[in-house]
Design brief:
Blueprint lengths: L16 E5 L11 E5 L5 E5 L4 H12 L3 E6 L6 H12 L3 E5 L5 H15 L4 E4 L14 H29 L2 E6 L12 H20 L5 E8 L2 E2 L1 H14 L3 H9 L9 E2 H11 L11 E4 L7
Parallel strand pairs: 3-4, 3-6, 4-5, 6-7, 7-8, 8-11, 9-10
Antiparallel strand pairs: 1-2
Helix pairs in contact: 1-2, 1-8, 3-4, 4-5, 6-7
Length: about 300
């Protein structure tokens, strides 16, 4: 199957009906299928899908039966094979769209691709982020603007693109993935922390604005997440501080977390999927800290 990208014609929709297993039929009839109209299937846009967290979120939403628009900043991020894999595994539709969300026009193109493929966006998960840690003393004007644009403004632009449609349908879920440092701990990385705190403020303010419109807005704030990027950070820290890999994990990464464990992308995805569901209809303006106890220190 070929997935769609911005600049390419999206594939024709699948037939109006698709099989869904009905667990209520019991074990003896587990192979029987009921049918549900595709119009009932919700569509989710996941920004930053080329990363470990974005991919895990997309997979979890696909498992919940949602059609997907997977976003990456640039072409060639190996997302199209992911789209095909999700379609094959979960029986949903998934398309790929590229765009620079730090610019309003990039967000408009992304949402236009979603509208073209599915006619609506019900769920928006903002994962896109620039994890560039520049000390305040050495932060240039260019670095500041770049970090704020990609780690704060990008989420705002994507939200602007979907909000009116969600309000018109009186149903929508927006989940912003930020980080624990944006919640409570001051660091020397002024631009990054300002952007992360800004996402939290945006979440709370917007939740109040759309509370009567059936749209919920929440944030998920993980501490250190175990991803391939973590290995690079461990290697760099070990080199800079003359530590072993084991010492970096124990004395640097895990030291901030009383549980002595790191958050996984899969755990973030599970929380995000719940916040994207009907069950979370009364949860809005909430910031969920996934800090393994670090927020209580």
């Amino acid at each position: 199957m070929n997935s769609a990208r911005i600049g390419y014609e999206a594939r024709s929709p699948r037939p109006a009906m698709r099989p869904i297993r009905d667990a209520s039929l019991g074990a003896k009839s587990a192979e029987l299928a009921t049918w549900r109209a595709v119009s009932e299937v919700r569509t989710a846009v996941v920004t930053g899908s080329s990363g470990e967290i974005g991919h895990a979120v997309a997979e979890r939403l696909a498992a919940a039966g949602m059609n997907l628009v997977l976003h990456s900043p640039e072409p060639g991020d190996a997302i199209e094979p992911r789209c095909e894999g999700l379609e094959e595994r979960f029986g949903i539709r998934a398309v790929h769209a590229t765009g620079n969300l730090s610019k309003p026009n990039g967000a408009r193109k992304l949402i236009a691709a979603a509208d073209s493929a599915f006619g609506r966006v019900d769920v928006l998960v903002n994962v896109v982020n620039m994890a560039t840690l520049v000390p305040a003393k050495g932060c240039s004007d260019k670095a500041w603007d770049l970090i704020i644009a990609h780690s704060l403004s990008a989420s705002f632009h994507a939200i602007q693109g979907v909000l009116e449609g969600m309000k018109a349908r009186n149903w929508g879920r927006i989940v912003n993935v930020t980080s624990v440092p944006g919640l409570f701990r001051s660091s020397c990385y002024a631009a990054y922390e300002t952007a992360r705190r800004g996402v939290i403020s945006l979440t709370k303010t917007l939740a109040q604005d759309v509370a009567k419109d059936g749209v919920t807005v929440n944030a998920v704030c993980p501490e250190q997440v175990w991803t391939p990027l973590s290995e690079e950070q461990i290697r760099d820290t070990a080199w800079n501080r003359c530590l072993t890999r084991e010492e970096v994990i124990r004395d640097v990464l895990q030291a901030r977390q009383p549980s002595r464990s790191l958050v996984t992308a899969g755990q973030i995805a599970q929380v995000t999927a719940f916040l994207s569901s009907d069950a979370a209809a009364t949860i809005t303006g909430t910031v969920i800290a996934m800090g393994n106890g670090s927020t209580e220190r």
